Amino acid sequence: xxxxAPFGTWPSPITADDxxxxxxxxxxxxxxxxxxxxxxPEVWWAEARPAEAGRVALxxxxxxxxxxxxxxxxxxxxxRLHEYGGRPWTVAADTLAFTHWDDQRIYARPLPxxxxxxxxxVRPLTPEPDVEHGFRYGDLxxxxxxxxxxxxxxxxxPRRTDIARDLVSVDREGEIxxxxxxxxxxxxxxxxxxxxxxxxxxxxxxxxxxxxxxVCVAEVGADGGLGPHRVVAGGDGVSVCQLEWGxxxxxxxxxxxxxxxxxxxxxxxxxxxxxxxxxxxxxxAELGGALWKTGGRWLAPLDRDRYAVLxxxxxxVLDTASGTLTPVAPELTAWSPSIAxxxxxxxxxxxxxxxxxxxxxxxxxxxxxxxxTSQPELPPAEYLSVPQERTFRTADGHAVPAYVYPPTHPExxxxxxxxxxxxxxxxxxxxxxxxxVLDLDFxxxxxxxxxxxxxxxxxSVGYGRDYRERLREQWGVVDVADCAAVARALAAEGTADPxxxxxxxxxxGGFTAAASMTSTGAYRAxxxxxxxxxxxxxxxxxxxxxxxxxxxxHGLVGPLPETAERYRVRSPTHNLDGLAGPVLLLQxxxxxxxxPDQAERFVEALxxxxxxxxxxxxxxxxxxxxxAATIVAALQAELAFYGRVFxxxxxxxxxxxxxx
Length: 660
What we know:
- The strands form nine sheets. An eight-stranded mixed sheet has the order 32-33-36-35-37-38-39-40, with helices on both faces. Strands 14, 15, 16, 17 and 18 form a five-stranded antiparallel sheet that branches. Strands 27, 28, 29, 30 and 31 form a five-stranded antiparallel sheet that branches.
- It starts with a strand and ends in a 14-residue tail after the last helix.
- It is globular, with a radius of gyration of 24 Å.
- It is built from nine helices and 40 strands.
- By secondary structure, the chain is of the alpha+beta class.
- Helix 4 (478-492) crosses helix 5 (508-519).
C-alpha cells in the first residue's frame, strides 16, 4: 500500500545536484576527418559542463569507444555571435579552429594524428581587440586552401545595437580578409564541393530569420575571394533555415514557401520556381526550425535520393524518389539540429521519454541505435515522470499541444479526494517548443507530488508557419490565453488543484509567466527567470536589448510608434496592480539578452506593495544558467517558493524568505 502524504512533500531521491549533473549537454556535433593516413571520419561535439562553471569543452569519440577531450581547460568553445552563439568549431585541412568564450577570438591547433603524440600548441589566429569582446567570430566553416570562413561581429559604439557584421576569411597565419557584407545578419559561407561557389543566408530588420531570409551565392576567385553576390532564392516572406551542398554538387535549402520548412533545390541562376526554390518531395511537416543559432543542421544527405531530416524534431528519412517520409528510431523523440552522416549512419544528439540527451549513432536501414556517450546516472525509473502527449482547446477552438508530466512516485500517493498542484511551463523563444522527453528538472518536482505541463502555445515552431504566426502582434495575448486554457482544462477534468496552479518560464517564457500573473486569474504564483518585463525598453530605442532581437517585438507586439500604448498595456512592469499572487524572480547579472535592469526595476516596484516576492540574482551567469551552483540554488529556491505559496513543508531545501 502506498504511503499517503500531502502532494509536494513526497520524499524523493532526485536532488538539485542530480539535475545539475545531468546538465552535461552535447551540442554542435559534426563529423571531422582526423589527420593521419587511413583514418576515417570521427564524431566530434561540444559539451556544456555545469561542474566546470559552465565551460563548453570540445570532445570526440575516441578509438576506444569512449569520449575524449580534444581541448583541456580552460578552453571554452563558445561565442557571442548574435548573442545566442554560432557554430564554434570547424576543421580546415589538418587544423582545428575554434572560438574561445573569454576573448571571442579564433584559435587553431593541429589535429591529433592518431600516433599518440600530443598535438601542437593552441595558438590565436585573430588579434586581441582593443575593447573587450570588440570582435566576435562565429559560424566557423572550412574555406578553400585551409582557410577558415566565419561571420565577424564588430562593436562600433557604446549601445548594445552598435554592431556591424561581415563575412571573413582567416588564413593559417592569422591574416583576415573581409569577403562580403550583404545583409545586417549573416550566416557563414559554405563552399561548394567543386570549390567554385559559396552560399550563405542573409536578412535585415525588422525580419527575424524565421520570417524571411535570402539565399546569396557568389563565385570563389582563384585568390580565395568572393565575386559579386546574387540573391537566388528566399526573401519576400520565405524563410530558409539551412543550406547544404548536395551529393551531386547541387545547392539544397530547407525553406517554407508552402508554410512548412521543406527540402528544396536552389538553381544557382535563381530558376523559375517559387521564390527561386524547387520543391523536392513536399510534405506537410516541419523539416527545419528557427535559426536562433547559426550553423544548425536539420538536414544531412545520405545519398542522391535519400536525406536524413528532423521532422518536428524527430529523425526521419526523406526519399525524394518515392516522396516518402519514414520515421527512424521513434523512441528518440527529440533531436538537436546538429545531425551529420558518418559511413552511411546518422549521428546526432537525441533524447526520449526514458533517456536524457546523448550522442547517438543510428543505422537508417533498421533504426539500430548506438550510444556514443553514456547516460548520466539516473534515479530509479519509477521516480521519473513519463510525458503524456495531449492536445487542448482554447475557448475559440484553437488546438494547443502540450506534454503532461504527472506526479510520479512508487511508494507515495496524495490524500483521498485531494488533487496535486501543477506547474505550467512556458518555453522561451517565443519561437521555441517543448518535446516529450525525460526531463530531470521536471522530475525534481513530479517525484515530490507536483505535476508539470509543458505548453506549446501559439507561436511555437514545429507546427507550420500558420501556427507560428498566431503570435504575430499577439504576444502577451495568445501565449497567455493558450497557457491559461491548458491550466483550466487540467483543473476542470480533475487532474490539477485549481487553487494550486503556478506558471514558470525563462526569457520569453518569463515574459509569458509574468504577463499571465498580471492579466489572468488562472495561477496562484509564478517563477519568472531572466525575463522581459518592459516591452518598450526591450527595443533598439529603449536600449535594453541586444542587436539581434532589437526589432523582434515589432512583429510580436506591433510597429512603433503607432502601437506604443499596446506595449505599455502588455508589459508586466506597468500592470503590477493586477498581479495575482507571489512571484519568484531569478536573474543572471551578466545577461546581455535580457539584462538585469528589467528584473531589478520590477522588484523595486514590488517593495512595499504587500505582494510576496523574492529575487535571486546570480553573479557571472548570462542568459540561462550554466554553473552547477546556480542550477542547484535556483531549483531549490523554486521548490521552497511553491512550498510557501501552496502550504506544504520543504525541509530538504533552504528556506526562502518572501518580501512584501
